[in-house]
Amino acid sequence: MAQLTCDNVILGYEKTAVTGLINFSLNKGDYLYIIGDNGSGKSTLMKGILGLRKPMEGTILFGDGLKQNEIGYMPQQTIVQKDFPASVEEIVISGCLSRSGLRPFFTNKDKMLADEMLSKMEILDLKKRSYRELSGGQQQIVLLARALCATQKMLLLDEPVAGLDPETTEELYELVKKLNREEGVTIIMVSHDMHAVSKYASHVLNLVKEPVFFGTAEEYFASHAKGQEDK
Amino acid sequence: MELFEKLMYYLSYPLVQYALVVGVFIALCSSLLGVTLVLKRLSFIGDGLSHVAFGAMAFAVVLNFSNQMLLVLPVTVLVAILLLCTGKNSKIKGDSAIAMLSVGALALGYLVLNVFPEMVTSGNVAGDVCSTLFGSASLLTLSSKDVWLCIGLSVFVIGVFVFFYHKLFAITFDEDFAAATGIRVQVYNILLATVIAVVIVLAMKLVGSLLISALIIFPTMSAMRVFKSFKSVIICSACTSVVCALTGMLVSILFSTPVGATVVAADMVLFGVFALIGALKG
Ligand SMILES: Nc1ncnc2c1ncn2[C@@H]1O[C@H](COP(=O)(O)OP(=O)(O)OP(=O)(O)O)[C@@H](O)[C@H]1O
Ligand SMILES: [Mg+2]
SS3 of B175, please? Predict the structure, then answer.
């Protein structure tokens, strides 16, 4: 059974639909790129998958042992205030809350998991640093570590490289690729970076045109090339 | 030495002891909430709600409630929940909603006090309004019942804070992420709104409604000058607030200055000191 299935889903705000009819399913270990112009509904679809917005039509199903609150999420722009006083440690471990239920404190297991994720992201040395004093790229990687504390099954990343320099971008992509290849984490990535799509994607969802395109990366580039020729 | 004897003399009165205990608890609670409120960019909810509480208090006076809290507390809690939970999606944006409520409640409250002056027992409308707004001497007129109510509510607030500390952190830092990991954000927002309303109604006794924002904002801002993690900011702001409240109250007893204004002045001085330390640390 697929981990995530979108069955005839339409998403929108109040009564206006912002996306076309979306149909796709993802298996464990897939690497999906969602592309589309600004305002085509990429972030809205992310919120639908996370359960923050109900779809106007259709259903979003989870299977293969994945529950909706077991998805790690890296938001588009953290609206986090610039002067928010929090240490890297505090932020990363807050990802563990999904498992703590009503328990008011973190267990040693949570703390060890947070440390493990920090070292996996190669930022163990930043543990005690203040989040607001980090560079934009370091902040993104901290948020990635937080998402990993929430899950090791599926990661949703909404334009994680926006505003990063090419080197840090590459670093972040490699980290995500490693998670995908070595640990079998399913990745859903929103991006405008077509170069990265051709390099990393196993599947592509293009929200921009009606009908919404979904297929493997090869299918996407084949149809894309054909589209160019037709013009 | 004379000052010290004078202080000891005053401290032997139960009324003064009550006032100190209540003052410390209120300062502690409002500083705890202050951190969350300031970081959520809701510093002004304190101001707005305190005016709502003032309006409700005016109605309670006119309607001749024996215990004004019975009207003030539910009304304030309700308004707080409305403000916090509809904030993001409502047609009227959060800050304008707060401003409208705040001004409206203040005006209505003052209006009813003037229309029905015979219900105001002291017979002095202006004086009564002034004391509700600025706190004045009401702290020295507390009964032991008031004190226990205050302590009970404070313990509730502190309990909520300790028990849900990590969840409050997650919701304050990033509401969407918290919701995505299955934290029931709306439930905690309602809880937070209730606690805020309770603290504000309590704090009105100490500094009056006009100066509540100061009690919420100053300790947090002071702590944020120097400390950089969430936990240390909370602890520091709680300590700062308690120290300032105690100092302010003692000074006001010794030199017969108005309580609320003195406490806030102490907070301002400490903010200056912390800002200086922060600047020196770089
Ligand atoms: N809270 C909201 N209420 C009403 N409409 C909204 C809301 N948020 C977004 N929209 C609308 O929904 C559409 C899709 O927005 P969305 O944020 O999903 O786009 P996006 O594909 O993520 O764009 P970007 O590439 O800029 O991130 C836009 O037309 C936007 O105006
Ligand atoms: Mg977006």
Answer: helix
